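Dear colleagues,

As part of the handover before I leave the project, I'm documenting each prediction I ran so the next person doesn't have to rerun anything. This entry is a single chain, and its sequence is reproduced below.
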Amino acid sequence: MTTTDGDAEHPRSRRARRAILSAAADLLEEAGFRSMAMDAVVARAHASKATLYRNWPTKAALAMDAFMAEVDPASPFPDTGSVVEDIRRSVAATVQVFTRPRVRQMLLGVLVELPHDRELRDAYGERYVVPRRRQAEAAVRRGIARGEVSRDAGADILFDEIYGAIYLRLLLGSSPLDAAFVDALVSQVFEGVLIG
């Protein structure tokens, strides 16, 4: 979020920001990113345009803050001592969050617009994908150092295989995103790179 520390100290500013984020999340859930108009956010939040644009200069920035407020605290990446278990737990937490109806609708409203909106695509990559990719890379490096996985294990490919499968099921909605899927997915992705 692009707020300043000084603004964050004022209770009225905090309330206004919370109202704006809540309104943006509601509209993102209801109508998707393309139809989430900034004027509609202002009207629903009973906030001023000045407050909105001071904190979120673009719709993409606002949408990502609204989305991250829903998912970020619920997406931990553990260090259990096993790379497979680290990834399994992270994927399970991600799937659990993605299958919450509100988050699922918000995410779908973002994903379908990524090919068409560069600002949104950049914001989603920077705010959501890149930090998780780095965490997955760190987990794979730990696994290599412990002798669990081959030195040839490509963290990028493993990450893409896992998230690609999750996004496909999310977008098509034809197969369940559940614990059995998570276990099978992680096991298959790591099958070729585990040592021993």
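The domain at 5-63 is CATH 1.10.10.60 (Arc Repressor Mutant, subunit A). The first helix runs from residue 5 to 8.

All the best with the project,
I.
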